[in-house]
């Protein structure tokens, strides 16, 4: 073996070493590729044991970033083994450090600063809106710190004072051009402090109504009844009236029954009113202290029975079902008494006049 090596020329030996290095690099890449899932799950398992969590490993927010970081580190190690120039090696090291910091930032943002993180919640005082807002601010701060570390400590950008001065001038220009955005940002802080609504509430803002699905720095998104999503600037919300239907303690039901004049008399009207009260008071969701059923008016074509009550259900979709139930019950009472509902009518009398010659 020694004789064989000694007989090889310098160029042949160099080529042999290069081929051997390439083979090692390929083996490293293959090992990293086929062990990526195992290593990521092992790290997550240790992490869950440390935090006493019982979350499926594949559903953990750290799973994909850790797996990608492991593959990237393996590829970097394989490239470092290859015979490359010193200049290229320095560039590769800087790129590796920069990308590694980015991966670490993603892992931090996907674990500690997720929406349902316990870092911003404790006990029963769980405010999803505030938690979302704080998490977004924290994620922004971590990215700013990461970019600063990459520029100063990795890339060696030491002229930070000039950069800050330039950013100062740029900030003035940007702030003048983005006054509405800044206004919306402060409006978002106002929404979080006053809490006129939170995520999940059904609100009405101006001409729009829907369920709040997100509150960000600049805007609030609501899902309307037709399942469309509307993004409203926070400045518009703070300048408009906001109706939060989820803050209701009860919902009002109000209806007028226009009875056909030919089907009723005073005695029958009294019987209908009694039966309607019995039906209403038999419902568990009706607040019995605020029920009114009475004969409140006469029009040109009908006798009117006014029904006014409150139900305990505040959810709008569920309230519609209760409203449907009450309407059907009232129609059953009228059908039982053989009374129909009236509609506006007008009687026209036509007199035949004979034409006479004068």
Give a verbal description of the structure:
- The protein folds into 3 domains: 1-111, no CATH class; 180-247, SH3 type barrels (Roll); 251-336, 2-Layer Sandwich (Alpha-Beta Plaits).
- It is 55% helix and 15% strand.
- The protein is an alpha+beta fold.
- It has 10 helices and 8 strands.
- The protein has a 5-stranded antiparallel sheet. Strands 6-8-7 form a 3-stranded antiparallel sheet.
* Domains, number: 3
How many E strands? 8
- SSE pattern: HHHHHHHEEEEHEEHEEH
**Overall mean confidence score, pLDDT:** 78
Cα(first) to Cα(last) distance is 147 Å
Across the major sheet, the strand order is 4-3-2-1-5
Tell me about the biggest sheet? 5 strands, antiparallel
**What share of residues is helical?**
55-70%
List the helices and strands and how they pair.
Blueprint (H helix, E strand, L loop, with lengths): L1 H6 L2 H42 L11 H19 L4 H26 L16 H27 L5 H18 L1 H16 L7 E4 L2 E8 L3 E5 L5 E5 H6 L2 E3 L6 E10 L5 H16 L10 E7 L3 E10 L4 H21 L22
Antiparallel strand pairs: 1-2, 1-5, 2-3, 3-4, 6-8, 7-8
Helix pairs in contact: 2-3, 3-4, 4-5, 9-10
What characteristics describe this protein?
single chain; alpha+beta; SH3 type barrels; Alpha-Beta Plaits; 3 domains; 10 helices
Summarize the structure.
This protein has 10 helices and 8 strands. The chain has 358 residues and is of the alpha+beta class. The chain folds into 3 domains: 1-111, no CATH class; 180-247, SH3 type barrels, CATH 2.30.30; 251-336, 2-Layer Sandwich (Alpha-Beta Plaits).
């Amino acid at each position: 073996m020694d004789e064989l090596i000694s007989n090889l020329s310098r160029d042949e030996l160099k080529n042999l070493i290069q081929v051997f290095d390439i083979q090692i690099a390929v083996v490293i890449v293959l090992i990293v590729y086929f062990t990526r899932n195992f290593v990521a799950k092992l790290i997550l398992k240790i992490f869950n044991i440390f935090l006493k969590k019982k979350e499926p490993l594949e559903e953990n927010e750290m799973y994909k970033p850790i797996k990608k970081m492991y593959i990237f580190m393996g590829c970097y190690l394989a490239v470092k083994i290859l015979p490359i120039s010193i200049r290229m090696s320095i560039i590769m090291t800087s790129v590796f450090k920069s990308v590694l910091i980015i991966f670490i930032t993603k892992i931090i943002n996907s674990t500690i600063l997720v929406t349902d993180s316990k870092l911003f919640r404790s006990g029963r005082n769980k405010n999803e809106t505030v938690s979302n807002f704080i998490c977004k601010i924290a994620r922004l701060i971590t990215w700013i710190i990461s970019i600063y570390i990459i520029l100063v400590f990795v890339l060696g950008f030491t002229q930070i004072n000039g950069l800050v001065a330039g950013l100062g001038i740029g900030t003035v220009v940007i702030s003048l051009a983005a006054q509405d955005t800044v206004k919306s940002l402060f409006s978002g802080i106002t929404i979080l402090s006053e809490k006129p609504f939170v995520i999940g509430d059904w609100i009405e803002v101006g001409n729009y109504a829907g369920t709040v699905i997100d509150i960000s720095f600049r805007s609030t998104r609501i899902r309307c009844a037709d399942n469309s999503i509307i993004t409203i600037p926070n400045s518009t919300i703070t300048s408009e009236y906001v109706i939060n239907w989820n803050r209701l303690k009860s919902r009002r039901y109000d209806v007028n029954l226009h009875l056909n004049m030919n089907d009723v008399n005073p005695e029958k009207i009294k019987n209908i009113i009694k039966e309607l009260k019995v039906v209403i008071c038999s419902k568990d969701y009706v607040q019995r202290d605020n029920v009114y059923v009475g004969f409140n008016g006469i029009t040109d074509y009908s006798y009117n029975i006014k029904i006014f009550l409150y139900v305990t259900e505040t959810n709008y979709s569920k309230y519609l079902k209760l409203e449907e139930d009450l309407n059907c019950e009232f129609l059953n009472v009228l059908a039982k008494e053989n009374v129909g509902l009236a509609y506006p009518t007008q009687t026209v009398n036509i007199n035949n006049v004979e034409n006479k010659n004068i």
